[in-house]
Amino acid sequence: MRRKISASHALGRRLGAIILCLTALLALTGCQLAIEDAGTEAAEDKLVGVFITTEPLDLFDTEAYLSDILSDFSGGELPPISDNSNYQGRLYAELTPRTDTNEETGEIIETEEYVFPVEGFAFFATTVPGNKAEDSYTASTIDPAIGDGHLGVNVSDEGKIVTLTGTLYTTPQELPVTYYYNPVYQSADGSVYVVSGGGGFMVNTEAYSEGEVYSQSFDATTTTTENGVTRTDSCSVTVSINVMFAPEKIVVLQMSESNAVLSREEYEPGALPENLSPERNAAYLLVETHKRNEAGEIVVSREVYSHDAQRFETFSPRPDGVCVKSWTAINWAG
């Protein structure tokens, strides 16, 4: 098996600082029982996605680290450990029922998905075990915070190729927000867990304007041979962070062939209808998004949607600074 995962951990603190951190950790970690099986991933464990948090996942087994590093300690600086994977704990997800509705038919669909017991933005594709009624299947779990989420699955006799791409749209708030990318794995027994992803990426008002500012990818390849047949499974996950000024108002204008305004409607972000039926003589829609830039000035972006467009997108800011994308279907008059 071959893995290529970007991660970093700063170790090698003084003995006194480490002992103080250990004391605080043991006093505060009431959820420690949810973390199991510290150590490297088993050979059959596969990368399935990423779990993004705004706080670091404290899954480091400080007690085991101290036990090993202090066994030969004779004073002075604590020596760094080049490979700290043996001290990384796992946080397991729970398989939870999920109900969806088919927007076209109204059919209720009962499925299951893996959910972690901590706050964060899930973006992964797992294999959900089958039962007497149906076979196992690949299911994607994409938090609403992840816009433009795309899952690609290619299955052949040679193996399975999974590709996940998405974008986190965030507003440059007064207080910096840090996003931590934590890899998610699935074991051969079906269990799903996340490990700490190390350092995070900070977004604040002073440093960024609108546009993509950061992107991180995780890639892993697993090769197995059974009965003389070699199978290669791979997973590639890419999540970009795009800074977006928070929308304050959405204006939808229906326009005629001569570019005259037929109607004008203003909406609060997130309050647009699911369906919009333009007037019969409307040639196109002009959708304006009114935002305030870093200087406090109102800026307006505009998108044009003609008769070949079936829907248009808008964004709405959440209290956590994430801008969520939503869609409005366009029902053009026949």
The overall average pLDDT, rounded, is 81
Low-confidence stretches: 1-43
**Over all CA atoms, what is the radius of gyration?**
24 Å
Report the total helices: 2
Number of domains: 2
- Distance from N terminus to C terminus (CA atoms, Å) equals 57 Å
Specify the overall morphology: globular
Largest sheet: 8 strands, antiparallel
- Helical content (DSSP H or I, runs of 4+): under 10%
Order of helices and strands: EHEEHEEEEEEEEEEEEEEEEEEE
Structural class: mainly beta
- What is the beta-strand fraction? over 45%
Overall strand count:
22
Descriptive account of the structure:
- By secondary structure, this protein is mainly β.
- The chain folds into 2 domains: 2-243, no CATH class; 247-330, no CATH class.
- Helix content is 7%, strand content 50%.
- It has helices at 15-28, 62-69; strands at 2-4, 35-36, 46-53, 90-92, 94-101, 108-115, 121-128, 137-142, 146-156, 159-170, 177-186, 192-194, 200-203, 211-226, 229-243, 247-255, 261-267, 275-276, 284-292, 298-305, 311-317, 323-330.
- The strands form 5 sheets. Strands 2, 3, 4, 7, 8, 11, 12 and 13 form an 8-stranded antiparallel β-sheet that branches.
- The longest helix is centred in the first third of the chain and has 14 residues, at 15-28.
- The radius of gyration is 24 Å and the shape is globular.
- The chain starts with a strand and ends with a strand.
- The model is unreliable at 1-43 (pLDDT under 50).
